[in-house]
Design a protein that fits this description.
The chain is mostly helical. Helix content is 79%, strand content 0%.
Length: 243
């Protein structure tokens, strides 16, 4: 199974660079990241020892980038009929799902790695908290995996690139912005258990806790479990298609 995953990962990751899409996404991500950092994040106005001006807008950027990767890896396969050919091979649906997911996630890792010069340049001028920044990069990688999981799952149901992208972005935004705790308060619904459930699935709460240096097992588990759940749904969809 491991060999199958690695084979699919390599094939899909390399295939991203056969088209102009990979280079386009790299440019778009880097430009938007720098614009968000220097203008939206107030790079020169705040204490940037943990590069908070850079990390603050990363979820919004990966909500744009991840669906674009997923539509290439899944919707394109359905569009050209190569997914059916792939699924007729002696390969497990889970291997296909994981291979494509890790290809998209690896590309996100590459995008984050390309922003390291910002970290190093900042460290020349101020004393940066390198441990905190490292934690924030790991957090961003988890966020990228979170949105890649959603996007891959949604895209596996779509045959058109545009519909796959729009639906993936829509679900990414809805899940990120979902705040059940606020809704419960608005409708007068109370209860300690419900409140704990609402807080446990609040994306922003987990993300910003990590950015503030509050790295807890509950924050890591939120992203890890969410990725597993989305990949499970993705596997069910592919298995159904194969059947």
């Amino acid at each position: 199974m491991g060999a199958e995953i690695i084979t699919i990962l390599k094939k899909d990751f390399i295939s991203l660079f056969y088209s102009r899409q990979a280079y386009f996404l790299i440019v778009i991500y880097l430009v938007l990241s720098m614009v968000a950092t220097f203008f939206g994040g107030g790079y020169f106005q705040i204490d940037n020892t943990s590069l908070s001006s850079f990390f603050i807008y990363q979820p919004e950027l990966f909500m744009i980038i991840s669906p674009a990767l997923a539509m290439r890896l899944w919707a394109d396969e359905r569009r050209y009929g190569t997914l059916e050919l792939l699924l007729t091979q002696p390969v497990r649906p889970l291997s296909v799902v994981l291979g494509k997911f890790f290809a998209a996630w690896s590309f996100c890792l590459l995008l984050l790695a390309l922003t390291f010069p910002l970290w190093k340049t900042t460290s020349f001028y101020i004393k940066t908290d390198d441990f905190h920044i490292t934690i924030n990069y790991v957090c961003c990688l988890l966020v990228a995996g979170f949105f890649c999981g959603i996007s891959c799952c949604i895209s596996s149901f779509c045959s058109g690139l545009i519909s796959a992208y729009i639906l993936s972005v829509f679900f990414c935004v809805v899940i990120k912005q979902m705040n059940l705790d606020y809704l419960f308060k608005q409708f007068g619904i109370s209860g300690d258990i419900l409140q704990k459930i609402a807080q446990s699935i609040n994306f922003d709460a987990h993300y910003y806790h990590i950015l503030q240096g509050q790295l807890g097992i509950n924050n890591i588990m939120f992203f890890g479990v969410s990725i597993i759940v989305f990949l499970w749904f993705n596997t069910i969809a592919v298995d159904y298609k194969r059947g």
